[in-house]
């Protein structure tokens, strides 16, 4: 943990600042120590260079425990960074039409950062990044962020972030990619993030869509809930490898070339789930193995309708800057507060 992070983190219980006790410091980073709240005196460990706000004493709640456990295993197994240029392109496609300049000088929250790929890209775009994840994925994120002085990895729960809120909030831009639909209550997770946005800040969220995903909801979802999320992880790893052996040549040799002929090509239009699978066709085997595993491991996944997604923004008092359908199977939304509305005023209650 870099000392500079102390400027941003506060007690998730009472939002007072911390006194930092250092036990081991190496290369300007605190490896081991603790953070003690100056008001309520609660203490949180710093272990292996990461401040920990999800601990045995402060666990996650409900099914979020199993969800974090599943993703912790996943991101440690698929921890390796592919090339940053690919993540850059992927990220820009995800957050479209937001451009790299948007990040320059901003304090950015990556909520549910996994192994940190999009935190690194945000940092390369000039942001100071608070990369938060509830699971052991933070170990991989910290390793990957070693050479990025502007990325701060925190083990924390979206519902209980150790960040200032309301009028004291410091975050200029929060994004959460592929996370909220895995929470027990996705909208509660969204509201929890919004509380930490400062005046004029915005939030970007990507979630699974319900539209056109009937087969996922009715076929894949029950299999995932009742079977694959319960399998020993190594077995699921092997199973998803076999599925990828079949899927990968199909997306690469059929979907991708037909997509290149144009979206209106009649053969391409005959292909089921075409935009998403053609998108997968650009990646290597290992990446797609990871995608298949990711789809089968989570114990909870909601598929969200456009109206529902829009309501998250409106009910939080925000205006939608941009909302679009991604790969015709998911929603991406960017919203913010009207310039004359402060975060504290717009939320029905800060304790929401
Ligand atoms: C599908 S992964 C996406 C990771 C990353 N956003 C990316 O796209 O590379 C979902 C991540 O959300 C994290 N997560 C799940 N529940 C969380 C919670 N309550 N608070 C913070 N992170 C959470 C998981 O640990 C996991 O790393
Ligand atoms: Zn406190």
Describe the protein's architecture and organization:
This protein has 352 residues and is an alpha/beta fold. It has a domain at 214-297. It contains twelve helices and eleven strands. It has helices at residues 64-77, 84-95, 117-124, 137-144, 186-194, 214-226, 233-260, 266-270, 274-280, 285-297, 306-315, 343-346, and strands at 18-26, 29-37, 43-47, 50-51, 107-111, 128-133, 151-155, 171-177, 197-208, 319-326, 330-336. A seven-stranded mixed β-sheet has the order 7-6-5-8-9-11-10, sandwiched between helices. β8, α5 and β9 (197-208) form a beta-alpha-beta unit. It is globular, with a radius of gyration of 20 Å. The two termini are 30 Å apart. The structure holds S-adenosylmethionine and zinc ion. Zinc ion is lined by residues 11, 13-14, 16, 37, 39-40, 42.
In brief:
With 352 residues, the chain is an alpha/beta fold. The chain has helices spanning 64-77, 84-95, 117-124, 137-144, 186-194, 214-226, 233-260, 266-270, 274-280, 285-297, 306-315, 343-346, and strands spanning 18-26, 29-37, 43-47, 50-51, 107-111, 128-133, 151-155, 171-177, 197-208, 319-326, 330-336. The chain is built from 12 helices and 11 strands.
List the helices and strands and how they pair.
Layout: E1 18-26, E2 29-37, E3 43-47, E4 50-51, H1 64-77, H2 84-95, E5 107-111, H3 117-124, E6 128-133, H4 137-144, E7 151-155, E8 171-177, H5 186-194, E9 197-208, H6 214-226, H7 233-260, H8 266-270, H9 274-280, H10 285-297, H11 306-315, E10 319-326, E11 330-336, H12 343-346
Parallel strand pairs: 5-6, 5-8, 6-7, 8-9
Antiparallel strand pairs: 1-2, 2-3, 3-4, 9-11, 10-11
Helix pairs in contact: 1-4, 1-10, 2-3, 7-9, 7-10
Bound molecules: S-adenosylmethionine and zinc ion (ZN).
